Amino acid sequence: MPELLRGKKELGAVYTPKPIIDFMLSRLNISSTQPLAVLEPACADAPFLSAFQQKFGKRHALTGVEIDHEAKRKSGLKNFEFHNQDFLLWETECRYDVILGNPPYGIIGNESHYPISALKEVKSEYKARSSTWRGKYNIYGAFIEQSVKLLKPNGQLCFVVPATWLLLDDFILLRKFLSEHGELHVHYLGKAFAKVNVVAVVLYFVKNARRALRLYDGKTLCVKRTHYNGDLIAFEDDFTREFEKKNPVRIGDFFNIHFAARSPEVKKSAIVFSEKKNGRTPLLTGRNLKPNAIDYETNYTGLYVEHRRANELRAFYGFPHIVVGHTKGAKVVAAFDERCYAWREEFHLVPKCSVNEKSVVAYLNSALVQRYVATRYRDMIPHLTKTQLSRLPIPTDLK
Ligand SMILES: C[S@@+](CC[C@H](N)C(=O)[O-])C[C@H]1O[C@@H](n2cnc3c(N)ncnc32)[C@H](O)[C@@H]1O
């Protein structure tokens, strides 16, 4: 495909490989002999509509919406209506039988921090129109919501999107919204885009009265729910089910889980300094945390804390407690901070009841826990979230 048609990075453009388009078309249930209304949002040169027409014939009415006026229309398409518009602000009375494509993805904001910079002026308008917007959100979430709203009853939506919405709390409202409007099938693809470090899934959704969920590894069915309520979506197998049954209590039942003090707060703090002096200890980060060990010596932050006042930054820096990695990939890494240092990263576990913290640390670093987390969440997000940690099964005898 010529470079021009690949679209602009600041608009979240990523070209979809043909085998993924073919797989997505194979998911669609196209039995009607009537012409269907088919939409490709963020279509660029409309690769999905072209493939749809090739596979299902020329009788269908095809519509593409694309914001980038330089993205070319595919000339060979029949029955094709092209709108050079922002899909999230596009007003239409039409409703569609099939909506498919590869929406842009990325958090909208300044180019120094966020991938989608071209749309930052309209972000507040997107937010106002989207009922699922939460936290920093991601533009693909708003595309999913808008597309579901444009489906006819029994209409089908098929998008390839990042996997993050399955797990992150920023997508709680989106998952709930999907669970309330139809039946959801998710196909995990892994890192399916060459040179793009994104774990992708195909979301296939039918707007109907069923509230079912199916999660597939590629084409293999792994999880089936007849009543889906919008909860996070993760893999399971005999091992994870047995592990949960054997350990019915969760980490969140034993501990309150806190984030470390964040950078802006640390910078403003009267007890944090850039010079080393007696009574000051390094402000620790994730790099200081190892399985069952803390490197108290290396200063990765370049900052020092007045040690006896560390509890002014966070009360829990003032007593020994468990620290669990947030920035360690999808692994569980835990250690017991018995020297009560201040941290700029990671999770800090404060017991709600009497519990053997040293045994909990050993358990969290164990091969069994690593296997559980790797099986449930794979590489779908690049870190461990508070929700994942809080739901981790834990043996009751560690109490
Ligand atoms: C991930 S690319 C996919 C392109 C094409 N569907 C494909 O698979 O090759 C996303 C496209 O979304 C377009 N885009 C970004 N924001 C948009 C918006 N708000 N409305 C419409 N199109 C948008 C970009 O210009 C880009 O062409």
Structural features, described:
Helices cover 23% and strands 23% of the residues. By secondary structure, the protein is of the alpha/beta class. The chain folds into two domains: 3-233, Rossmann fold (3-Layer(aba) Sandwich), CATH 3.40.50; 245-398, Adenine-n6-DNA-methyltransferase TaqI, Chain A, domain 2, CATH 3.90.220. The strands form five sheets. A nine-stranded mixed beta sheet has the order 3-2-1-4-5-7-6-8-9, with helices on both faces. Strands 11-19-17-18 form a four-stranded antiparallel beta sheet. Helix 4 packs parallel to helix 5 (172-181). The longest helix has 12 residues, at 139-150. The structure holds S-adenosylmethionine (SAM). S-adenosylmethionine (SAM) binds next to loops.
Shape: elongated
Distance linking N and C termini: 60 Å
Q: Pairing-aware structural class of the strands and helices?
A: alpha/beta
As residue ranges, the low-confidence spans are: 1-6
Q: Quick one: CATH superfamily of the largest domain?
A: Vaccinia Virus protein VP39
SS element count, helices: 11
What's the CATH class label of the largest domain? Answer: Alpha Beta
Task: Spell out the key features of this protein.
alpha/beta, binds S-adenosylmethionine, Adenine-n6-DNA-methyltransferase TaqI, Chain A, domain 2, nine-stranded mixed sheet, four-stranded antiparallel sheet, 399 residues, disordered N terminus
